[in-house]
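Deliverable D4.2, example record:
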Amino acid sequence: MKSYKQVFLSALFAAGFWGSTSATPAKPFIKEGVWRGVFTLSESQVPFNFQLSGKDAEHAVFTLLNGTRRDDFHVQRIGDDSLFIKMNTYDAALVAKIESDGRITGEYRSLVPNFRGNALPFTAEYGQSYRFAPNGTEEAPKFNIDGKWELKIYSKEPTPDRIGLLHQDGNKLTGVIMSVVGDSRELEGTIHGDEFELSGFTGPSPIYIKGKVNDDKTLTGELSLGIYNNIKFDGEKNPAAELPDPYKLTYLKEGYSQLDFTLPDLNGKNVSLSDEKYKGKVVIVEIIGTWCPNCTDQTSFLSPWFNKNKDRGVEAIAIGFEQKDDLEYARYTLGKLKEKYNIQYDILFGGIADKKVASEKLPALNRMMAFPTTIIIDRKGVVRQIHTGYTGEVTGQYYKDYVARWNADLDALIAEK
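Output generated by the structure prediction step:
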């Protein structure tokens, strides 16, 4: 039986993405430098910027650029004129062709087995570093929207409000959208006249925001996550706006003080908190998925912290809920996560990526509200803290406060006898 990746590559070959396999001279590789790509998302054009370094595929690094954020990816060249750029731990890729005029055309595709989500077509041109419009061509902004914004969300299903942290410098606009599950990562865009646009692409599906500043200085707009997830919002500047306390959203049900589970590791061996390895230790349990950008950001924080502190009487466990309920598939996706972030703690497979399933696997919790969720357990096995979501460095003081509390709380628990 073919693996899911073999099936996917076969499909690409059948679609003609690999180009010619004849013994003709190889075509030139794509140029080093900065590029501007544009996704076609429904009726919208969603720009993204990237940089390519390396004169051939063997040495090439594809770097997505979003404000100050940089995300690097490996480039594979297939045939004379085709590229395959795997989005690191996210089971998706850019599949592209080098055109005769030097442009790149292709699609952003899911690699999840049996997933029938639509692909996002894109084109890219060399030497263009702007995001939405070339410098000097934009209409002067009528408003300054720098600051903290309280965003009221309107969607078919009840959706918690969000917070926007925006920074404006002339026409240039950058920022991040925060929700109870985490943050959007860094967004980059422009404000021209009374309209603004932001986009972000770091490996998962692209994000696009388009809005208008009203005469009363409020905002109206729409936020698009991928192909189908579009939500409308109103915004009001509010320096005092805050999200619900992430330490109080997820908690233990009445009558519970401990967490209990038995799940397989990547080799199929069952692991439980009652195992000797965890007795008398402070244990950190992170509930994640490799498809989830906030989860990989959380892991990029936890893994180096653990590697530095693991000899202090602390252990960690990651429970991954993946996009296919199959241990072999999870071994691949979670194995990539382990390799990229040098994870030296146990990684378990929880099942399909579904909050209801996660709640069933962890019945002591009131509910599984978000991936990631981080649980801290003391040396006696008592759950002492549960944190919903994760906010990264782009959130500024929110991130600094999280790190300060994390270190203070872990130091105190480790010091307990």
